[in-house]
Amino acid sequence: MSNDKKVERITDMEKDFAQWFTDVCIQAELVDYSGIKGFFIMRPYGYAIWENIQNVLDKKFKEGGHENVSMPVLIPESLLQKEKDHVEGFAPECAWVTHGGDEELPERLCVRPTSETLFCDHWSHVLHSWRDLPMLYNQWCSVLRWEKTTRPFLRGREFLWQEGHTLHATEEEAREETLKQLDVYADLCENYLAMPVIKGNKTDKEKFAGAVNTYTIECMMHDKKALQSGTSHFFGDGFARQFDITFTDRDNKQKYPFQTSWGLSTRVIGGIIMTHGDNNGLVLPPKIAPVQVIVVPVAQHKEGVLEKAQALYEELKALGIRAKIDTSDNSLGWKCAQYEMKGVPLRVEIGPKDIENGSCMAVRRDNREKTSVSLSELETEIPRLLDAVQKGLYDKAKNNLDKNIRPAYSLEEAKELQENYGGFVKTMWCGDLKCELDMKEKAGMSSRCIPFKQENLGETCACCGKKAKHMIYWGVAY
Amino acid sequence: MSNDKKVERITDMEKDFAQWFTDVCIQAELVDYSGIKGFFIMRPYGYAIWENIQNVLDKKFKEGGHENVSMPVLIPESLLQKEKDHVEGFAPECAWVTHGGDEELPERLCVRPTSETLFCDHWSHVLHSWRDLPMLYNQWCSVLRWEKTTRPFLRGREFLWQEGHTLHATEEEAREETLKQLDVYADLCENYLAMPVIKGNKTDKEKFAGAVNTYTIECMMHDKKALQSGTSHFFGDGFARQFDITFTDRDNKQKYPFQTSWGLSTRVIGGIIMTHGDNNGLVLPPKIAPVQVIVVPVAQHKEGVLEKAQALYEELKALGIRAKIDTSDNSLGWKCAQYEMKGVPLRVEIGPKDIENGSCMAVRRDNREKTSVSLSELETEIPRLLDAVQKGLYDKAKNNLDKNIRPAYSLEEAKELQENYGGFVKTMWCGDLKCELDMKEKAGMSSRCIPFKQENLGETCACCGKKAKHMIYWGVAY
Questions:
Q1: Which A residues 54-83 touch B at CB under 8 Å?
Q2: What is the interface pTM, i.e. ipTM, of the complex?
């Protein structure tokens, strides 16, 4: 039975980047739209990417002594209101449950937009002594934020994430934790997702509602826009005071503990798409690809081809490689296009000629480079090629980032650079909100971060000319 | 610094089983109450049990070809209403979101009580050809059911579960899947949780809203009440017809696929507690215990004890055993009581005398049996003891189940057996709802299941005397 299925063409990214992105999400079978605006279905292929990210992070969290917990999905309105800045930040985006069964509830319950208030309420019950500290918790869940504009992965009314919440006896220890977890995110992005990051401080304007400090990792997408890919917050003892969380310290005194939280969401999958994808679809870094190698038999009707292809597939699996084989009746052309669309890092073709030569043909997804691989050398050659794809993707993204950060010495110059080149603009900054708002209004850029790696571009703020405090990155962000 | 912390006594189970259960949940640090009735916080120790159960099941699901997905947490009211029986079963228990941010929503959205309608809606978009079948999906998530009476694990307004949802080209294949997944649950319960099960059919009265058949595994708790521990449903093509899910079959005809779903929840943790626990607290089967062995130094202030204890702990970890060591300044008595409360299967004590003898003392949680283990034989002896605890728990539970199933030949006899002994009563049954309601009203027992393993206890229904169709189990259930 023949099958004339076609892989649908997607929009060229140069023509319409936003449409290209949506096309990839749908055609690579990552998501489906649900019946409610801003709520997306993560299909098996998309969810498997998230599971691979979860596996990496969960292992790192646990190695760092963190434990997973599960908090309620609903928060009473009165609990959300306990911390003033926090409720101001989140209340406008809450979805409210008002009825349970047939009854109207005495108090509105909000579907969690984030769980600080729940963790604090719990801690106020269970924390007693310095012996109970630190409390290093994490939760894998979904959260709701009632956004106006929504897009798969990048901005949903519901999204999946992990939220770490920790409590410490001292400020120093809490600050250390905040930075340590930012490093966990940076390691995930750089070494697994092949996405180079810039680590830094958020400005007061951009920090998390209720935080003392928010640290961020910022990535640059293929269209040179910024994606905030993970954040880590230091709260001081502000929430602890509001929620009356105390402990008896070694010196027998009652004290308030210091708190952190940190989150990374399915948004990074949007980052993977926009960092590595091309006009043939998704391109996945091998380390988190659900399928690392797709085996495609060539002229599979010919004697012995299917058997050899199957043996090759079994061998790859035995090597611990996430391999799949496609022996369906779809055409070779369809298969090649389909697995390119799905971003499988390596396609291995095997046909009568290859079998004669005792080899197979490996085709890299990232640059379509073909390598004939001897069947006796699979064990070394396939992992080598996967590593080459991983490194190739990182290097290309790093190059895109490095060449698209430009210094500016005035607001006008910053604006011009953004208009002509996009990317990030770095300037000196006085630290005042007014200059930050000016840059947004006049050059269309928000502050991305005050990078940990500071450079001295001069002594004065590029916006107002007053004495500069920091070097800062500006950009147009998702 | 000394620490006079006490492990609080719990209520004896013989005195008040319900209070004993709650005490264990709190004192073993499995859960905490949240600010909303029926919403429980799963603390690290409780959640770690769930993670171990997840690991077992997720592996089995994936080996069976299932893939994980993520569906929205909210369901539009109109979508829930598409299948008549289904909405009747669930609408009275729904929590309703009516506002997003400041706006009243045009349609109420229900926080999912189960996701059949969401899967069906999705399938109606993505199913085209017989090539797309079967679709074997699973989701790990929480669901909400607005119950009146709530208890940790057993009945929450929110609980964690997995829900499998599959679609098949033929009825035969779907029916096979339904039973296969029931076997996965039975295997989990019997071989990991040490909970013997009875597999069978639910009656029409007790089946899932919208299902053609519901299969169940029923367990018996220590108080001889029943706990329905997992269910698997065959839907026929009913939902497919309501949601207009069709595919082009090999013969080029449009057909409706056949559907299943199956779920197992954190309720089984309640089952573990009530099957194995005792008056000293929780007792965990080693295969899913977060901590399998707790190492406790005896007279740890004496020279060399802490070092030896630490070396012992490191060795156990290297053997792949989930071990922990408690070197805190709490008293030995507190430590013993605390890890008994938490149900750690094996406590290993090591003090000066043991060190002299080149041994340690292993104490089983289930029967407090002490075994001196040579330090040179840890590799064989500790796993052997863990296996012995696992088997001991299963055998004890199996004995409790077997000796508490009694045949009855009239409703009066059934009632008397229930009142005098509790447990399950087995009778012949005509299959009529009226007799099922009679048994409930007069003997206080609901039908547990029509077991796959039928016995012939006679020709007539124990309730009405008409011709019998099946043997059935009755019991008082959680």
A1: 67-74, 76, 79
A2: 0.96
